[in-house]
Amino acid sequence: MWVPVFAIIVIAAYFLYILRYAYRIYFTELDPLTISEKKIILNNFPVYKKLSNNQKQKFEYRLLRFRRDKQFVFHGLTPRQEDMALLLSATATILTLGLKRYKIPAIERVIIYPNQYFSKLNRQNHIGEYNPGLKTIVFSAEHVKQGFEIPNDNKNLGVHEFAHALSFNAVLERNPENRNFRKHMDLLASVYSSTLFQQKFEESTYFRAYSKTNVQEFFAVAVENYVETPLEFRQEFPEIYLILRKMLNFDFQKPFEV
């Protein structure tokens, strides 16, 4: 008789867990950003000033959701951990601000090391990576900070790795937005492999050398450029610019017009 009773207890405990989780996700109020947190956003995300009031409210709400719902794990003596969690949450949020489905289920865990770390995935030192199998994104805090020090050098580790995660998320979760994302990723790959583009690509210094690794790395690097120097991007490579604009449904030059 104890087996059915034990089974009932297990099932009841499971449903209680689900109810508590649902309550935390859907009914727990989110504390608004503090004045100091808003200052960090203003200092590190120039596009924030261009947003409409409605966009700013949406950005802040989604940022708070991301920071609450994802598991942040810090290894070693990483300084200013709350600021780092804020910067990374804001980065993920600004990249998905134009999307209706913004939660990025392909990411469950965000791991941060103080500096470069040894990756068990490929047995090499890394400053950042995305592991789709573990739904985990990993960063070096020092290199994340460096990505914000010069706002127009087209080097932002946070943007780069979240761009990779978004491309995997488009495969993981099937919906109209992700179908649109995949369609334009295929278009990007087609343009990238064309002789005409490759000729211009070789002659230009706009994209850094790492973008020539493969189309996935080109996409991640291109998103960095799209975020940091949208005007120059549109002038140099208008076709690629338009593809990214349609993928993200967001224009970093004129965000209120999308």
Automatic annotation (TrEMBL):
<dbReference type="InterPro" id="IPR042252">
    <property type="entry name" value="MtfA_N"/>
</dbReference>
<dbReference type="Pfam" id="PF06167">
    <property type="entry name" value="Peptidase_M90"/>
</dbReference>
<keyword id="KW-1133">Transmembrane helix</keyword>
<keyword id="KW-0472">Membrane</keyword>
<protein>
    <recommendedName>
        <fullName>Zinc-dependent peptidase</fullName>
    </recommendedName>
</protein>
<dbReference type="GO" id="GO:0008237">
    <property type="term" value="F:metallopeptidase activity"/>
</dbReference>
<dbReference type="InterPro" id="IPR010384">
    <property type="entry name" value="MtfA_fam"/>
</dbReference>
<dbReference type="GO" id="GO:0005829">
    <property type="term" value="C:cytosol"/>
</dbReference>
<keyword id="KW-0812">Transmembrane</keyword>
<feature type="transmembrane region" description="Helical">
    <location>
        <begin position="6"/>
        <end position="23"/>
    </location>
</feature>
<dbReference type="GO" id="GO:0004177">
    <property type="term" value="F:aminopeptidase activity"/>
</dbReference>
<dbReference type="InterPro" id="IPR024079">
    <property type="entry name" value="MetalloPept_cat_dom_sf"/>
</dbReference>
